[in-house]
Specification:
- By secondary structure, this protein is of the alpha/beta class.
- The protein has one domain: Undecaprenyl pyrophosphate synthetase (3-Layer(aba) Sandwich), CATH 3.40.1180.
- It is built from 7 helices and 6 strands, in the order E-H-H-E-H-E-H-E-H-H-E-E-H.
- Strands 3-4-2-1-5-6 form a 6-stranded parallel β-sheet, sandwiched between helices.
- Strand 3, helix 4 and strand 4 form a beta-alpha-beta unit.
- Bound molecules: farnesyl diphosphate.
- The site of farnesyl diphosphate has 19 residues, from helix 1, helix 2 and helix 3.
Length: 253
């Protein structure tokens, strides 16, 4: 059976055949959407969807690591998500701590590097403490980069980057004509990473929601109807199969 984007519906237990000889995208970014609708469909509170979503993060991190993805960027909380009811925001802010309490040991064993991309200054102290501990304890790891976009907004990121470059111009360290694409990329929160090769958005919404607008210029976009709590290893594998069917020309022929 196919969903509307042609994703074959497979069992979560289906294994990826490495002999398929697929190119594994180096940097995969995911907009994890649909937690609320998943919960509503089950007559559960919205936060139950976020809790289930956190469990899926664990599964997908394991699978990304197994497949050899180098960077996995997950949109966990946007600069606009503060508009949600306080109870929901409080719950979302506790998830990084919960996730890391139960999973940091495994991340360390798996050589995963935990990173955060976003304005951390507005995060509650307990959230910051949890992510800082994870960052510190995985700082010397060399495997998969697990990059949480937390209180992240692309327009805010670009605004800050412009301020940084403008300040350098003001003190004479930079000439306006020296501002090029690499200077702008270098002033973004993602400066240490290549642009995503593949973006996946779950839940059927067809928009970017202020996520990595500069970095996604040539990224392959895949939208699936599956709600994030239902997203499985096999969905990630299928997205990679779709990615392999795309012809990336970066504006060339
Ligand atoms: C969007 O679904 C999802 C979020 C705003 C939160 C995403 C967070 C997780 C998946 C868990 C994060 C886990 C860690 C470890 C930080 P929505 O609530 O907008 O769903 P809806 O559109 O159906 O209402």
């Amino acid at each position: 059976m196919l969903d509307k984007l042609g994703f074959r519906k497979t069992k979560a237990t289906d294994q990826f055949n490495i002999e398929d000889n697929l190119e594994i995208p180096s940097h995969v970014a995911i907009i994890m959407d649909g937690n609320g609708r998943w919960a509503k469909n089950k007559n559960l509170p919205r936060v139950a969807g976020h809790h289930e979503g956190m469990k899926v993060v664990k599964k997908i991190v394991r699978e990304a690591d197994r497949l050899g993805i180098e960077i996995l960027t997950l949109y966990a909380f946007s600069t606009e998500n503060w508009k949600r009811p306080k109870d929901e925001v409080d719950f979302l802010m506790k998830l990084p701590g919960q996730f890391l309490t139960s999973y940091l040991k495994e991340l360390i064993e798996k050589n995963v590097q935990v990173r955060v991309m976003g304005d951390e200054s507005r995060l509650p102290e307990h959230t910051r403490a949890a992510v800082n501990q994870a960052k510190e304890q995985t700082a010397n790891n060399t495997g998969l980069i697990l990059n949480f976009a937390l209180n992240y907004g692309s327009r805010h990121e670009l605004t800050m980057a412009m301020r940084t470059l403008a300040a350098e111009v003001q003190i004479g360290e930079l000439k306006p004509e020296e501002i090029d694409e690499s200077k702008i990329s270098g002033a973004l929160l993602s400066h240490a990473y290549p642009d995503p090769d593949l973006l996946i958005r779950t839940s059927g919404e067809l928009r970017l929601s202020n996520f990595m607008l500069w970095q996604l210029a040539y990224t392959e976009l895949i939208f699936t109807d599956v709600y994030w709590p239902d997203f499985s290893e096999s969905h990630l594998q299928q997205a990679i199969q779709h990615y392999n069917r795309r012809s990336r020309r970066f504006g060339g022929v």
